[in-house]
Amino acid sequence: MELIAIVKGINENDELTNITVLDKDGTIYNLKFLNYNNSLKKEHTYLFKYHQVLGSERVANIIDDYTEITELPFEEEDDALRLFYTKSPISRDEAIKIVNEYINKIDNKIIKDITKSLIDKYHDEYFIYPAAAKLHHAYVGGLAYHSIGMIKFADSFIENYPYLNKDYIYAGILLHDIGKVKELTGIMDTAYTLKGQLLGHLVLGAIEIENEAKNLGYEKAEEVMLLEHMLISHHGLPQYGACKKPSTPEALVLWYIDTIDSKFRVLGETLENTFDGEYTEPIGVLDKMKIYKPQNK
Question: DSSP states of the chain as a string?
């Protein structure tokens, strides 16, 4: 028998270790380990394989094997994660469709090839990972959803300011957080890797562009340098983690749009949990400002 469930409790007080788990419908199961090796983690989700043994008073569910869902194939992993954890407002398939649509809107071959190659290289992480450990888009699919929110917003910039190069803007947005697949550990117990702490996703993303450009034979192209500049400057100012201040129109757009989407998405989520006619709690990404939610009349 098979069961996908999240671990809620581990009791090692008797001969058989008791594992309390919860399935997607909220049903509680008690599974038993014959030889427990302390490998399960609370609040992590697993695919359990077990068999039933009829005891003197009740049926016992004996675990034969288990697999953490992060080790499952991409679609199975994503489906399972979305059952048990906070998820992006849009589906995986919709996110993939939108990202591919914008990649295909890039006309410059060098920019398009680098963008497509990196999205393909980190496909599973790109569409599963959160965009942050806590601050914004910290949920399943948050990384891709953040980029999608930004890129839709960018269309209005491109329409209003014809001097902007859409290829750099689309590529810069889609790749600006690609370094987070190396900076963060994943969706469960999200933490920062050693590289994430020492280098950060701006530098890690620029390194990915540099390496991919070499693989594709584009290392001498100016497009590569300009894309790298967009990534290392997209936090705008040194005090916010930027390695350089934005020095191209497209890099400036990337900074502003990234700032707006990250802050306003959190604001929207906070307002949903705020009663009409009251102030929100202090919002971290807004320098702990409190925002008043008008009464709905």
Answer: -EEEEEEEEEE-SSSSEEEEEE-TT--EEEEEESS--S---TT-EEEEEEEEEE-SSSEEEEEEEEEEGGGS-HHHHHHHHHHHS-B-SS-HHHHHHHHHHHHHT---HHHHHHHHHHHHHTHHHHHHS-S-SSSSS-SBTHHHHHHHHHHHHHHHHHHH-TTS-HHHHHHHHHHTTTTHHHHB--STT--B-HHHHHTHHHHHHHHHHHHHHHHHT-TT-HHHHHHHHHHHHTT-SGGGT-SS---SHHHHHHHHHHHHHHHHHHHHHHHHTS-TTEEPPPBGGGTTB--EE----
Q: How far apart are CA 78 and CA 54, in angstroms?
A: 35
For the stretch 108-124, pLDDT in tens is 999 999 999 999 999 99
Q: What would the pLDDT profile of 171-191 be if each residue is shown by its tens digit?
A: 999 999 999 999 998 888 888
pLDDT at 235: 92
Q: Which range among 81-85, 89-93, 114-118, 268-272 has the greatest average pLDDT? A: 114-118
Given a cut of 70, is residue 136 above it in pLDDT? no
